[in-house]
Amino acid sequence: MTERTNADLARENEELRARLDEAEDAIRALSAGEVDAVVVRNERDCVYTLDSADKPYRLLVEQMPQAAATLTVDGTILYCNQRFSELLGRPGSSIVGRPIQEFVTDPPREEFEALLSSARDVEVQREITLLRADGAKALTFLGVTTLAEGALGLCLMLTDLTLHRHYVELQHTQQALHDADRRKDEFLATLAHELRNPLAPIRNAVRILRTAAAGQREFEWAREVVDRQTQHMARLLEDLLDVSRISSGKLELRRERIELAAVIDMAIETSRPVIDACGHDLSVTLPPGPVWLDADPVRLAQVFANLLNNAAKYTESGGRIWLTSSRDGDEVAVSIRDRGIGIAGEVLPRIFTIFAQAEPALARSQGGLGIGLSLVKGLVDLHGGRVEARSAGTGQGSEFVVHLPTTVAPGAVARSRDETPAAAVQPLQVLVVDDNRDSADSLTLLLESMGHSATAEYDGEKALERGQTVRPDVMLLDIGMPKLNGYETCRLVRDSDWGREAVLVAITGWGQDEDRRRSRDAGFDLHVVKPVDPAMLLRRIAVVRERRLLSAE
Length: 553
Description:
By secondary structure, the chain is of the alpha/beta class. It folds into 4 domains: about 5-165, 2-Layer Sandwich (Beta-Lactamase), CATH 3.30.450.20; about 180-245, Signal transduction histidine kinase, dimerisation/phosphotransfer (DHp) domain (Helix Hairpins, Orthogonal Bundle); about 255-405, Heat Shock Protein 90, CATH 3.30.565.10; about 425-550, Response regulator (Rossmann fold), CATH 3.40.50.2300. Helices cover about 45% and strands about 20% of the residues. The chain contains 14 helices and 20 strands. It has helices at about 5-30, 50-65, 80-90, 110-120, 160-210, 215-245, 260-275, 295-315, 370-380, 435-450, 460-470, 485-495, 515-520, 535-550, and strands spanning about 40, 45-50, 65-70, 75-80, 105, 125-130, 135-145, 155-160, 255-260, 280-285, 290-295, 320-330, 330-340, 385-390, 400-405, 430-435, 455, 475-480, 505-510, 525-530. It has a 6-stranded antiparallel beta sheet. Strands 10-12-13-15-14 form a 5-stranded mixed beta sheet, covered by helices on one side. It has a 5-stranded parallel beta sheet with strand order 17-16-18-19-20, with helices on both faces. Helix 12 links the parallel strand 18 (about 475-480) and strand 19. Helix 1 packs antiparallel against helix 2, helix 5 runs antiparallel to helix 6 (about 215-245) and helix 11 (about 460-470) packs parallel to helix 12 (about 485-495). It is elongated. The relative contact order is 0.05.
């Protein structure tokens, strides 16, 4: 149903008034004795006497969807229909005889009385607000006309706009939900597309390695392809997880004093392959002197890398990208501007909304998931800043400006825990347990190539048997396994004499806070989300072992 305008309501009121005028003229003529009967022309001639004409007239007024009332020239209510009574939430007996001004809250009394006075000469239409018996206010559309050239007073007709506007708001909400559902479907289709893209070169690389003619050159190429494409897939999944963590308030920043230039350098290093592949020229202008931030350098670099990647993706090859920064009091603004496809005016207000894209991903070779800008806004908000998008329209390029609070220069910047030099890595006895044989075997080979002794098992029961024999320093346990899942296996390992001091690591695709809590409750030391970075994993294991040694002393 389309929204009715005030003009539509006025037209309906006009039609009803015309019908009422005809009935009024007939009743007046019958009452005055000017005529003895009224003949109505329709499918057949109908003759109405005074009584038979008056009754349908009253029924018509009572059954009107509009509230109706007749007034004296000074505004006293002479009659009101049931709808008028319902609109005010009062019985008709408590309304008749009272001035209409008592029930009108807007416009003010003097202005409303002037409106009634003007209605004696010309029909008046406008919105007014009535006060209901329960104290609520009812917004209505009012039409005022005279009765018998003003001799009998005024006739009011009111249309309740409150319910009508609630209906319109409901329609808008339903449309917004429909649009969100459509964008969600588009997003899921895009996600499937983006995840399939890296699989094709990975599969091709594997096939080439299987050929008899594959030599060192082909081996190096295949290794680079697999590494690059798996990193791409991991970034897509991490972005999804980050958006979820930000939405639920679970993402924590690792703040430190960091210079803006260092963050920008990290972002450019991340985005340089994309920029160079597109043949773009990147111009960077930063303020003279250091600009210090209290920020998470990794997350902030992620913000600028996302914006640089977007600028590169949505600008035709050989374009230009400008990164500029300026200080304004205790704030710094970083702008990333391009001459790319721009942003349409209707898209701009929701550009930072998840699933929103200025152009469907399939229309461009490097579309993306439509979550990058949502992630940017979330991370900037966590840093106490703000981000804005600007564009003159489609084809006019775009600009994203990140505003961040600055801080004073540090006296001495403490090294973060992750930067603490790791102790010399000693060979470990590692038991890898995963029902996905490829995952278990490949991780075992990687650990062995790094100087450790590693063994693979493919279910929890076998893992317990092997653990009794090899007595591992570290066990890497998948959570979802047959026979015994990871949680159950972990508890049994902790209850054994050989597993109490082992470092137990949950290796899983589930990374929400509830998943990590369940891992801790089961007895795991670490919770690592797939895909696993072996070097990072070993560093975290070393930290756990070092803490145990210190606590033992």
